[in-house]
Amino acid sequence: MKRYGEFNALNGASFQTGEDARVVALLGPSGGGKSTLLRVLGGLLVPEEGSVLVNGVALPKDPEGALEALRQNGFVFQGYNLFPHLTALQNVTLPLMVVHGQSEQAAQQRGQELLTRLGLFDHLHKRPAELSGGQQQRAAIARALAPKPRLLLLDEPTSALDPVMTGEVLDVIRELAQEGQQIVLATHEISFARQVADWVVFLANGTVQESSTSVKFFYDPMSSLAKEYLTALTKYR
Ligand SMILES: Nc1ncnc2c1ncn2[C@@H]1O[C@H](COP(=O)(O)OP(=O)(O)O)[C@@H](O)[C@H]1O
Ligand SMILES: [Mg+2]
After folding, report:
1. Of ligand 1's atoms, which has the minimum distance to the CA of residue 28?
2. Cα–chain-centroid distance for residue 212?
């Protein structure tokens, strides 16, 4: 259970993924609780009731412990939240040095390696305002991946992007998934979720309506809300 004041943003949000689930897609209408659930998974919000186990380990409930959990996960917010006054490279290296205590040399090496891998070699020294939306999002993903997080949490990573940039970012996410990175991703990109996710959690009105393998969810959704959502999303595609 997660409340904002009197409002129950998550209530009845119990689910367990299959043990071998590597990529989990959070689907469902806006306002359903996807971002709230990601924040709880990331240790940014502590639920008032209930507990969260990631890979069998309970997330701590005290603020200090939650902060530690946050450091172990990589979070990419809806909107990129890059530091606007820092270059792409500095956006990756600064948290590595300040939060994770790495040396400047190690941070530089990791930053260059990751940004290059994500196709940003020519843009290492540009600030966010000089990058396209897709490039900013890839830089944000590089920043989140830099400390080698257990879980990469992505909140609608393509919602602000045009189709070409969306494709670039989805390619990166697919590659990471293929390399074995554990990912929890909120998205409305249904065909992508269908291809890449092993597990789907469908959230509406703060409640988990369905939690199943992605194959089962897409072929045979159980809840009427999920059926409506899938119909609405596929109508013009
Ligand atoms: N900081 C907040 N304070 C109060 N209400 C919030 C806050 N964040 C989200 N909510 C509410 O919680 C519900 C779930 O929101 P959210 O988790 O953002 O859903 P989604 O990401 O699926 O669109 C919505 O009704 C939203 O208005
Ligand atoms: Mg959201």
Report:
1. 22
2. 19
SS3 assignment, position 33: coil
> What's the pLDDT tens digit per position in 168-193?
889 989 999 999 999 999 999 998 99
In this structure, what are the phi and psi dihedrals at residue 39, rounded to the nearest 5 degrees? Answer: -65, -35
Q: Which two tokens stand for residue 220?
A: 């045979």
Ligand 1 pocket check for 120: Cβ under 6 Å: no
Residue 186, Cβ neighbours under 10 Å: how many?
25
For ligand 1, whether the C-beta of 39 sits within 6 Å is no
Measured between alpha carbons, how far is residue 35 from residues 40, 179, 210, 236 in Å? 9, 25, 17, 26
How many residues does the structure list for the chain?
237
| 27-69: pLDDT as tens digits | 999 999 999 999 888 888 888 888 888 777 777 777 777 777 7
CATH superfamily of domain region 2-82+150-234: P-loop containing nucleotide triphosphate hydrolases (3.40.50.300)
Backbone torsions φ then ψ of 75, nearest 5 degrees: -115, 130
